[in-house]
Amino acid sequence: MKKVFCIGEILIDFVAESQGTNLENATVFSKKPGGAPANVAAAVSRLGGKAVFVGAVGRDPFGSFLLHCLQEEGVDVAHAQQVEHFTTLAFVSLDHTGERDFVFNRGADRELKYDPQLVSVFGGQVVHFGAATCFLGGKLETAYRQYLREARAAGCLISFDPNYRTDLWKEGRDYFIDQCIYYLKSAHFAKLSLEEARLITGSETLEGACRFIHQLGVFCITVTLGEQGTYLSVGEQNTTIGSVAVEAKDTTGAGDAFVGCVLWQLSRSGDPVSLIRDFDRMSNVVMLANRAGAHTTTAFGAIPALPYEADLGVN
């Protein structure tokens, strides 16, 4: 089984307990581990895979809490870095109109330094780039691009998820798009939302968006469509694979669970690059990943709600 390296941010989400209020009036918050790459690493590990998280936290109680959460899930955090900057925090609530109120305090995640010892063990493994804060400057953005070059040179399967966050890119969307295109040119597998596919490609149709992304060099594309399922495009073959009907309580982390389940299956396939070129086999991979994403919505929080193998009926 190959290792899955997940590179990017990890942070604390402070979620307002009272729904229907804005942050100005919220008084009680729940502390939750967050950050898409960290969630993906936890998802891989819960399913029995070998996940390695690469990111930075502060030398503070919040940073210790986050690393402990990943360690409890069996994620290798030997390459995570603790720095002198405070751990990155996000505060989130829904106001009375249903709009998201969001304040982001960026700290330690931007300080991730390039580690040459890490790339020495990249050879032939799976490397996932989850981009939410990685194009926002700092040492992380420099290290991120360096790791991409090294992963490509080491013959890794490269996975990319744009993780577009409107709150982080109210300005600078063109730069975000340019960076995504740069990373897609090196990716073998890409997972996008419908919003991201349209934003990055400028196409309103799934077929047109996937054609654009395939032309960049991506072999296998998945576009998540919420309750409608997932659109899968491999070469010139495509289909929509239906979602799983569940009573959803919280959609947080569903996309990360989907990605983690896909990468877990690729990591244990023996030859993941061949697998992502096989439309029929990838249809089965996506079907199981849809189940993982749906399962995550049935409980609150991202990491606590992630499925184990038994939850997916895997033998």
From TrEMBL:
Indicate whether Manganese appears among the record's keywords. Answer: no
The domain of life for this entry's organism is Bacteria
- Report whether Kinase shows up as a keyword of the record: yes
InterPro entries annotated for this entry?
Carboh/pur_kinase_PfkB_CS, PfkB_Carbo_kinase, PfkB_dom, Ribo/fructo_kinase, Ribokinase-like
Q: Which residues form the Carbohydrate kinase PfkB domain?
A: 1-307
GO terms for biological process? Answer: fructose metabolic process
Which key words are in the record?
Answer: Kinase, Transferase
A molecular function annotated in GO for this UniProt entry is: fructokinase activity
Q: Which family does the entry's similarity section mention?
A: Belongs to the carbohydrate kinase PfkB family.
**Which protein, by its recorded name, is this?**
Carbohydrate kinase
Q: Specify the species.
A: Robertkochia marina
